[in-house]
């Protein structure tokens, strides 16, 4: 088993935090708090005049490991409809009240907007899509179980 890559994140409340990054982590949340790059001195000067100083660094509890999103979709009369997005997730420094603690878990982002009407054929396609979606959820569950067996807690 290869050693996990170590990353450094500068936080507002704990300074530089060094932590291992799981191989499944996309790193997207580590970059969330970075200020956008400025090009050109004039743009920088103008921005400094109109913008108060902002600390873009996260709090330590805001650091998360996030895997790639997996879209769960079904067929509708208007084409594919996203039902949810599943993401492997871990909070390495959770607040005491967070239910999952430091365990790796699945974050399910539910998409509640929209509706679709179905006829008999459409319902058959919906059933097929839901069964395929169930297969995708089952694969994500296996990925989570594998990660926990490897020590992702």
From TrEMBL:
The protein's name: DUF6907 domain-containing protein
Matching InterPro entries: DUF6907 (IPR054202)
* Pfam families in alphabetical order: DUF6907 (PF21848)
